[in-house]
Specification:
There is one protein chain. By secondary structure, this protein is mainly alpha-helical. The protein has one domain (7-208, 217-298). The chain is 75% helix and 0% strand. Helix 1 crosses helix 11 (255-266), helix 5 packs across helix 7 and helix 8 crosses helix 9. The longest helix has 27 residues, at 7-33. It is globular and about 50 Å long. InterPro entries: Diverse_Substrate_Transporter, EamA_dom, EmrE-like. The chain crosses the membrane at residues 12-30, 36-56, 68-92, 98-117, 179-203, 215-236, 248-268, 274-293. This is Threonine/homoserine efflux transporter RhtA.
Length: 307
C-alpha cells in the first residue's frame, strides 16, 4: 500500500465502520422479527424485497464479460451459503460460541487474501487481527466448549473470508456496478431461502403477517431491508473496490461489539466487565485499521529530517 491513501479510501473505511454498526443492530432486530415469522421465510422476504428494489441496476450487467458475470453469481451463492450456515449454526450452538467463531473471519481473511489475491498483509494488519481475536474471545466470555453447530459457524466464517476476496476480484471490473452486485446477491439469498423452505422446511413458509396487526414486524423488515441490506451491502461492495479484503474484514470485525452494545440498549441484556473489555479491543482494532499509519510515519520522518 502506498504511503498516501486516496481520500475516497478513508471515506470507505469510515463507511465500513457505519456498516458494522448497522449490522450490529440487526441481531436484536432479527430476534424481534422472528417472533412473528420463521427464519427462512424472513430471509426470503428481506432479500426478495431488496432484489425487487434493486432490479433496475441489473441492466448494467449487459456489458459485463462472462467471467465477470460468473464472479457476480459466485458472490451471490457465497452469501447464500453464509446466511444458511450462520442461521442454522446459531440454532445448534451457544451464542458465545457463535460470536467467537464468526469473528475468526478476521483471521481467515488475510490468509484467503494471501492465497487468492497474492497480497501479503502488513505487520500492522496482523497485529490488529490479533487484538480483534483477543477481543472476540473476551466478548464471548472466554469460555469455549465445542458442539455440533460450531462446524457450520466456522464454515460461515471461512465463506465470509472467501466472499470478500471474490467480491474484490469482481469489483476490479469497472463495468460492474456495486448496486448490480448487491441485487444479484439479494436474488441468490431470496431464491435459495425460498426453495429450501418450499422443498424441505414447509413450516418455514407461512402467510405474511398483516400490516395493521403487526406494525413492529414490518418496522423491523423495513430496517433490515433499508439499512442492513440495501445500505450495508452496497457500501461493502463499494468499499472493497477501494480497500483490501483484510482491512474490510478488520473494520467489519467490529460488528459483534456494536451488536453487544445494541443488545444492552435494545434488549436490556447485561455484559460482564470482560465482555466490555473485549468489545473495546475489537473496536480499537478496527480504528487501528482506519488510521493511515504509514502516511503518519512518513510525515514524522520528513518533519524530523527538515528540523
Amino acid at each position: 500500500m502506498s504511503a498516501a491513501r486516496h481520500p475516497s479510501m478513508h471515506l470507505a473505511d469510515w463507511l465500513l465502520l457505519a456498516v458494522a454498526f448497522v449490522w450490529g443492530t440487526s441481531y436484536g432486530v432479527v430476534k424481534d422479527a422472528l417472533v412473528f415469522y420463521p427464519v427462512l421465510g424472513l430471509l426470503a422476504l428481506r432479500f426478495g424485497l431488496t432484489f425487487v428494489l434493486l432490479s433496475p441496476a441489473l441492466r448494467t450487467l449487459r456489458t459485463a464479460s462472462r467471467r465477470a458475470l460468473g464472479g457476480v453469481l459466485c458472490a451471490g451463492m457465497l452469501l447464500l451459503g453464509i446466511f444458511l450456515c450462520e442461521t442454522f449454526g446459531v440454532m445448534l450452538t451457544r451464542a458465545s460460541n457463535a460470536a467467537f467463531l464468526i469473528s475468526l473471519c478476521v483471521v481467515l481473511t488475510p490468509l484467503a487474501e494471501w492465497a487468492m489475491l497474492r497480497r501479503r498483509p502488513s505487520r500492522a494488519e496482523w497485529a490488529a487481527v490479533a487484538v480483534s481475536l483477543a477481543g472476540a474471545w473476551l466478548l464471548a466470555g472466554g469460555d469455549y466448549r465445542p458442539n455440533a453447530g460450531d462446524a457450520l459457524i466456522l464454515l460461515a466464517a471461512l465463506l465470509r473470508a472467501i466472499s470478500v476476496c471474490v467480491t474484490r476480484r469482481v469489483m476490479r471490473d469497472a463495468a460492474i456496478a456495486p448496486l448490480a452486485v448487491t441485487a444479484v446477491q439479494a436474488g441468490c439469498v431470496a431464491g435459495g431461502s425460498a426453495v429450501l423452505a418450499l422443498v424441505s422446511a414447509h413450516g418455514q413458509w407461512q402467510p405474511l403477517p398483516t400490516f395493521s396487526a403487526h406494525l413492529p414486524f414490518w418496522g423491523s423488515v423495513a430496517w433490515l431491508v433499508g439499512a442492513c441490506t440495501l445500505f450495508a451491502f452496497f457500501i461493502q461492495n463499494y468499499a472493497v473496490r477501494r480497500s483490501s479484503p483484510t482491512r474490510v474484514a478488520l473494520l467489519m470485525g467490529s460488528e459483534p461489539a456494536f451488536g453487544a452494545l445494541f443488545a444492552c440498549v435494545w434488549l436490556g441484556e447485561r455484559l460482564s466487565v470482560a465482555a466490555w473489555t473485549g468489545g473495546a479491543l475489537i473496536v480499537a482494532a478496527s480504528l487501528f485499521a482506519v488510521v493511515p499509519w504509514r502516511r503518519a510515519a512518513a510525515k514524522a520522518v520528513s518533519e524530523a529530517l527538515n528540523a
